[in-house]
Every structure is written in C-alpha cells, then in structure tokens.
Amino acid sequence: MKFWRIVLFSQLFGFEPAETMKRAVSALWTRRAVRHGSFCTTSTSSSAEAAAAAEKWDGRFRLHKPRGQHLLTNARVLDAIARRAALQPGDAVLEVGPGTGNLTARLLASPASRVAAVEIDPRMVEAVTARAAALGLAEKLTVITGDAVEVEFPPFDVCVANIPYGISSPLIVKLLFGPYRFRTATLLLQKEFARRLVATPGDGEYNRLAANVRLVADVRMLMDVSKRDFVPMPRVDSSVVEIRPRAATPGVDLGEWLAFTRICFGQKNKTLGAIFKQKRMVMNLFSRSCRAVVRKSNTTSVGLDTLDDDTSNEDINVKDDAAVGFSEEELGSFKEKIAGALESAELAGNRPFKLSNEELLRLLRLFNERGVRFQ
Ligand code: SAH
User: Fold this and answer.
1) Most C-beta atoms within 10 A of its C-beta, which of 17, 172, 214, 234?
2) Are residues 231 and 266 in the same domain?
3) Distance CA 257, CA 263 (A)
4) Which residues form the Ribosomal RNA adenine methylase transferase N-terminal domain (predicted)?
5) Does residue 167 line the site of ligand 1, with CB under 6 A?
C-alpha cells in the first residue's frame, strides 16, 4: 500500500449540516419520488423483475476473486442497503467498488443528487457506466478509475458501498482519519470484521482499529448478509454497518493517540504495567520523548498505514539506536515518570483491550503531562 500522509485534526471534525432544513426537504423529495415511482424501494413488480434480470451475472468476463469481485445480487438486500443509507436530496454519494452497478443503480435512483464511484477494474468501469446510461441516469454518475485506497475522493456527504473486503481497514482509516467530512458510511463488510468494529472494550474481538474508530465515530450493526447473496459465493458471510463520524472529538493530539494505541494494543494481553516496564520500550519512548521536545507541535503528520488493526508490536523492537547516548540515570528517571503515570491512573494491572477510550485517554494525558511522548 502506498504510504500517504495527511495533515489534519483541525479539518477533520465538526460537521453538522442544517439538519432540520435538510430533513424537511428530504421528506418532500421522498414523497415526490414515491409518487413518480422513481425511488428504488417503490418499484413496481415489472420494473423489479427487469432490475433483478440486470443484477444477475451474465458471465461476460471472468470475475477476479483476489480483487474481491463478489457481486451482490439479492435485490432485497441491495434495496435495504440503499434505504438504510437514508439518502437525501442534494447528497453527494461516494461508492467504492461499484462493480457492475447493482448498488449503484439504486444510489442513482435515490433522491441523492450525484454519485461518484471509485473502481479499480476498467472492465467494471465500462460495465457500471453502461448500466447508468441504460437507466438514463448517466449524468448523475462520475466514475473514477483507480485504487480507492490511493485516489483522492471528491467531497461527499454519504458513503455507501459493498467494498472489496481486502481494503476494509485502510479504507475505513482513510474515511475517518483523512480530510473528509461526511454524515455516514454504510458499508458491507466481512462479518467477523464488522463484529470487531462494533465490539466494545472487554469483548474478545475488541482491537486497536475498533478503539481508534470509536474515538471519532459511532458504529452500529445494521444487518447480516448471507454469502449466498453474492456471485460468485464467497467463503465468508457479511454484515452491513453504519459508521457515523462524531461532530465533536476528544481534545487529544491524534498523532499521540495513534502511536499510544499502537503500543497498547500491540501486546494487548499483557498488562499496561508489563508493557511499559520492558527496557526496550522505556528506551524507545525516551528517545521519542526527546525528539518530541524539539519538534514543532502545532501540526500533526500521521502516517495512516500504521493505523491498521494488526497486533504485532514493532515499536519496541525498532531502532536500537534509540538507546544510544542515554545514561542509566536519565533512563532511570524516565522510568519513574512512566511508573508515576501508571500509578496515578491506577491502571498498571489492567489489560489495554479491557479499557474504555476514556481510560486510555486519561492515561495518555498523564503520560504526556510527565513528558512521556509516543510519536
Ligand atoms: N459493489 C458491487 C461490486 C462488489 S465487488 C456489488 O455489490 O455488486 C468489489 C468491487 O470492488 C469490484 O468491482 C472490484 O473490481 C472493485 N475493487 C477491488 N479493489 C478495489 C480498489 N482497491 N479500489 C476500488 N475498487 C476496487
């Protein structure tokens, strides 16, 4: 994955459109759409049959499984996803991986004003473009050919997508920690991944990605989708989740938080006391803390590909040179600062994955106050 960096925080949050106005206009639009039979959920049985025929895979080219090319062909599920996305007039929709356009067709028929779809496979680009033209809705659709993890997205209000599962993590990170402001992302994900995303502290499935996502967004499970609803049938079941970025986020240096959770969740079955007692860890943090003092602190540059939910902990093993030039005395007093923070948080005996973000944030603040830095 290409390493891409962002300068953020101040731009990230605080999105709150004129909701009341939007809702009123939406209600009006929905009534009109229903009257004219243009909203996907109100189609007549004959148009439903025509739509179902278009959704079936005609085998015109070979579907490429490593690219996650599993087409969702159950019309009921497709309708439900489009409905749950609650698209409103004026909305700009972002779809990732439109494939042949089964979901795209519904997004185009919704009250939303426009749809931008990012698709990596030129054959799919052609297919979805032709589908929109056949529906007479080509002017509402912009197809961007490229890798959704790397291309810049146009501004959007709502993201709705049955994504290739291989890019779930980087895509969610990009959506939530990139420079985008949006209302909701309604995403079809691998079931286990979705479970982890909605897990709460203490659940076996809770991990770093869940903690990071929770910091900036609310996530809820909308429905499960059977693997039988896809062509070709994948090995795993799926679930639809809704991710809703929060208007306000805790006042925390995001770069610090991300580096801190990387360390905590890298050894999530150890207690915090054990994690922060390791000599290599102390030396590494000492080095980082010294560097942080000389670094400008008003802008935060975050490497997002380090934000994945892996559980390996490279941090304590990297850069032996981190330890060079420190006296035992300096190291000893730094160790005391770490111990002091843990002691005043009363969290030394706790395992990170059982802690709420509030508890982790409190500990991070105590560390930072004592000059212990993680970036
Ligand atoms: N949304 C469609 C297709 C899902 S299959 C449906 O529900 O039927 C996933 C699609 O994502 C495929 O069309 C595949 O070519 C595309 N894709 C795979 N990797 C991608 C990436 N990195 N960026 C954008 N699109 C990608």
Assistant:
1) 172
2) no
3) 10
4) 77-247
5) yes
d(CA 372, CA 344): 14
94 and 188 belong to one structural domain: yes
User: CATH number, domain at 198?
Assistant: 3.40.50.150
Task: Indicate the SS3 state at residue 170.
Answer: helix
Residue 70: give the domain boundaries.
65-245
Whether residue 97 is annotated as binding a ligand: the answer is yes
What's the CA gap between 184 and 173, in Å, rounded? Answer: 14
Mean pLDDT value across residues 281-310: 67
Q: Give pTM, 2 decimals.
A: 0.80
Tens digit of each residue's pLDDT (9 = 90 or more) over 209-267: 999 999 999 999 999 999 999 999 999 999 999 999 998 877 888 889 999 999 999 98
Q: Is the pLDDT of residue 319 over 90?
A: no
Mean pLDDT computed over every residue of the chain: 82
Percent of the chain that is helix, strand, coil (3-state, to 5): 45, 15, 40
Q: Which of 162, 186, 240 has most ligand 1 atoms within 8 Å of its beta carbon, as the pocket-test mutant?
A: 162
Find the largest Cα–Cα distance for the chain. Answer: 81
| Percent of residues, the chain, with pLDDT higher than 70 | 77
Distance CA 14, CA 248 (A): 6
> Cα(179) to centroid of ligand 1, in Å?
23
158-162 β-sheet, strand order:
141-145, 114-119, 92-96, 158-162, 184-190, 238-245, 217-225
pLDDT at 270: 92
Question: Is there a single domain that holds both residue 21 and residue 143?
Answer: no
Please check whether residue 375 lies inside any domain of the structure: no
